[in-house]
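User: tokens in, sequence out, please.
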């Protein structure tokens, strides 16, 4: 296949005959699944299920992250005809990757949401696939971690963000995107000694024992030193990666609910994600993309690249490691 196929190929989200390989259709047309993967609810033989969680009940400032999954899928159409740059392999060829669609939930029955999401992810894991989740506000990582910890035990959390999200909150009925990792640690879903938070630049009274590489450390010490430190902290533990798009400076990702200056550049994030290859990653999410606050689409583009990098990390060990 090649670019000439765009003249006759369209809607591969529905029409493609298998789940492997690149996609060649006009980027500006067709059904916008993530990376033009086939939409399906059949997870037999699937390695990675990309799924959207359009939920934004728990936002500090600007709403709109419920539109994140749709925007990330649309932005990903720019990446479908070439293997991801710098990885040395094509994850779409190595792995069976599908778009599992979005989580269905009643927006007026908010208390039901966490359990629905945990069961949604558990269904993916029980089928033998890993999940890559397009959010949605950051609270969604908490119900997701419940499913992952149930399968793998306490996870090492690799968390890119401006905020630690460990503010004290002992009311487990509250749905709050700033306290979910506090609760996750309290409930034994996360091993804080094996966890690291990258890009932090807000004050928090208690880090809950998690390791922090703040934005200044990345800027001054460089990405290579940060990656070496991250890998040393994670060790060989099973890892869940959560990337809040506001880990990036607002200059690179203005479309988020809680922008904070002094953040990572998109270049720093892309280099670190690539150089983390080899960690025992089990799943991940990209959250807080809020399209209404970025008419350029740059935030969604960054989100799509982060999700693709998570896919590349998941496939790295499956393909036998370094090229």
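Assistant: Sequence out:
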């Amino acid at each position: 296949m090649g670019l000439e196929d765009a003249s006759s190929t369209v809607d591969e989200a529905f029409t493609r005959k298998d789940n492997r390989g690149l996609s060649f259709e006009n980027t500006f047309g067709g059904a916008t699944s993530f990376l033009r993967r086939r939409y399906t609810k059949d997870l037999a033989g699937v390695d990675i299920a990309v799924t959207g969680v359009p939920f934004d009940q728990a936002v500090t400032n600007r709403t709109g992250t419920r539109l994140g999954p749709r925007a990330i899928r649309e932005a990903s159409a720019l990446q479908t005809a070439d293997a991801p740059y710098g990885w040395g392999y094509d994850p779409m060829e190595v792995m069976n990757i599908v778009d599992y669609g979005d989580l269905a939930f009643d927006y007026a029955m908010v208390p039901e949401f966490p359990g629905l999401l945990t069961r949604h992810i558990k269904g993916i894991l029980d089928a033998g696939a890993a999940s890559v989740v397009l959010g949605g506000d950051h609270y969604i990582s908490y119900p997701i971690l419940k499913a992952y910890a149930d399968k793998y035990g306490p996870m090492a959390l690799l968390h890119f963000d401006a905020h630690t999200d460990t503010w004290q909150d002992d009311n487990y009925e509250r749905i709050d995107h700033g306290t979910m990792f506090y609760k996750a640690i309290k409930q034994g879903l996360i091993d804080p000694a094996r966890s690291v938070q990258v890009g932090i630049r807000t004050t928090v009274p208690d880090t809950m024992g998690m390791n922090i590489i703040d934005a200044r450390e990345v800027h001054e010490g460089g990405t290579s030193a940060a990656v070496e430190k991250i890998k040393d902290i994670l060790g060989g533990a099973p890892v869940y990666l959560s990337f809040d798009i506001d880990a990036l400076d607002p200059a690179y990702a203005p479309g988020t609910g809680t922008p904070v200056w002094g953040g990572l550049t998109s270049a720093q994030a892309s280099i670190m994600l690539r150089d983390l290859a080899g960690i025992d990653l089990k799943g991940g999410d990209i959250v807080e993309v809020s399209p209404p606050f970025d008419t350029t689409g740059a935030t969604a583009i960054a989100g799509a690249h982060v999700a693709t990098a998570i896919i590349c990390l998941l496939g790295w060990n499956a393909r036998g490691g370094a090229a």
